Amino acid sequence: MALADFITQCFSSEVEPEVDEKGVPFPRESKTNKKKFVKLSSTDTYADWGESYHTQPGKTAYPETVEGVQRSVLYAIARGFREIRQSGYGHSWSRQGPGNRAFHIAMLSKEERTSFPTKYPKTKDALKKDLRKIVNTNRTVTEGGVTYHLFDMGPSVTNHQLREHMDQIFYKGGKAFCLPVSVVMTENTLAGMVSNGCHGAGWQHKTVADYVEEITFVNPLGKLQTITRKDKEWRSAFLGYGMLGPIVNLKMRLVEMPAVNLSLEKIPVGQQIPPPRDYKMPENMRQFIKLPDEKTKAAAMAAFLKRVYKTQHYEEFVFPGQTDGYAVSYTEDGESKKAKKFPPTIDADLNAAGEVAAQLMTNSLGFKALSEKSQEALLSDFAQFALYATKKKPFVTSKIDAIHFRGDHVQDFKASDYEFEIGIPKLNPNSQAIEDNLNLEIVMELYWAQLEVYYKYNAANKHPQFLPLELRVNGGSDLTLSAQRGNAATCAIEILSLEESKLPVDQWHQYVQETIDRWKEIADKYQVPFFPHLAKQYEGRSVVHNGRRMDMLEYVREMFAPRVEEFYRDCLSIAMKGGYTLRDMEIYKNDFLRQIFPLTPELEAKLLKEVEDKRREAAANAKVVRVWRDPTQPNVPALLYPAAPTRMGNTSLHAKLGASQPAVRSIPKITVPASQSRTVQAERDLDSPAYVRFWHDPTKTDAPTLSAASSDGRMKMLILKY
Ligand SMILES: Cc1cc2nc3c(=O)[nH]c(=O)nc-3n(C[C@H](O)[C@H](O)[C@H](O)COP(=O)(O)OP(=O)(O)OC[C@H]3O[C@@H](n4cnc5c(N)ncnc54)[C@H](O)[C@@H]3O)c2cc1C
Question: What is the pLDDT of residues 533-554, one digit of tens each?
């Protein structure tokens, strides 16, 4: 047992050590309870859920309070760690977790993160915790005709807990709330979903991070810092892959929860998403998929358009080799009184059992001894069972149950997953409308291209894909580093299979590569953005871009480059507000994130110069105030200060001439326009007569005091001009 772990264990004993083996005080959970320390381990390892990588962090902290997170950061800095990375459930395949020797801040307990089958802590107890609170602020904002209710939520609230908490209110007839959109799986933390800009479905919905109102994180000085939508940096702060530091609170925009009509439809694969115009089906597919005749195609097209445009959630599943696929959609027009829990408990249990059994089955020798073809058939059937054993026709349920229609325990079946976010162009780019204005031919082409890859491999008796093709239409995003930014709508398309250790992995990689190449060609044809889902798998694969085959990481870096500059410009501003530097923020990155979002010395120098230039420009436009010594009152201190320190609007400046003249002599107002409301700074030339120059510092938003001039206390002021 490592010394640090031994010491950690000693915390429960009567005499508690206060410092670690290096003499650094252990982080406490709270100022008041001096005995409550953050649990630390120097032996716990880290692996993402899909086990695509494993690391050995230098230390792992398991804080339970906001203070605990802050003190963990300070402890890591005091111990000289050069990387601090936090994790939620660890569901991101891409290497965003803590690297080797990093300081890992685990926002969930080890048991909760790694238990199999999943063990959920009791929601009622969990929500009492500092990092899991769900508190209605009773404030609302309205945007785009939608009224959002602002909730303060802990970063470690999981979809499972939010759902249980809100459903319990909803099904008793109470007023419940939910995120406008979320991922299907329930074993995700809120901060994890926000940090990666995760999405759900429905063209009306942007990413989960687009529904943040305010974010509070622990900055590299260990202090709490908040960015709201009123701050100009919000677009970069709300989706940051954990690079700003551990998030400890998210003020989220929730909607009042409606009852929905949830529909799970079984549709022949050839009609689920109708073939694109003039489609010619390859010979090797014909015996498996029937192309619809003109009349059937027209009906299938009308049904497809209805699912895309007239529902609030739309996604498709095609299990490999199956003749029928499944469409999941809902409309927010259910009758609350008729709403029933979905999946019903018994089916949820069956579902869970199916997932666990499938997981165990793939581990069994018997399963491994099967031919790939049989494995595929078996698993495909299992997955269908797990998904659709329950409902065959539309069903009224809560919106949150419909979002998580697969219930809990989805994570009990591990998978490999390659997903791409591909822009959907408008039919009429000059129109603001999205509904009925999307060129869905691209979606049709993407779907059929993947089926073609599948049947090509099938013809060669190769079966690396064991789990479904999934396709969703969702919205764009306003956030700087979102893969969906700027899209009118986005087609999120992915292929899944077993976790890679259980696959003919070379064949799977080749299969994925062919799929990526087909999808990228289609994106290029429509001239729309093509990004991998940054939380999922893409490393090791490549992409043809501008006629050149590039490693996927190089591609991602190139595609993000212009936005990375924007991101760091905002980060610099955030850092200056918090009193630290861009370099200080680097502690929150690992090697992988440094590769994708590099802060090069040239970029840093460029951004710093921009700030300096702005400062100079502001100084050049300074308001001039003349100051001189008053020979008759040598001991009178003179002071300038704003009458009402304020960040916004007008600031009045007064001259106060010390004790013998207590009255405040008003001097004319300096108007600080709201758009430039910044700290007013003063600078004094030492020679007499001296000048005090005022200007608005564009990099500072907090103007608590005006520390102006006359530090020798023997000056008098006269305003010369503004
Ligand atoms: C089975 C499965 C289904 C999925 N379905 C979807 C889907 O439908 N749509 C979709 O978009 N994605 C989906 N994903 C991806 C998944 O939603 C993301 O990987 C998500 O980020 C996972 O959340 P997490 O709690 O596991 O976070 P982690 O994977 O642990 O962390 C993700 C990122 O968030 C950061 N982070 C975590 N907590 C904090 C914090 N408190 N402060 C600051 N940073 C933090 C981490 O440092 C990391 O950068 C799915 C994943 C799986 C395994």
Answer: 999 999 999 999 999 999 999 9
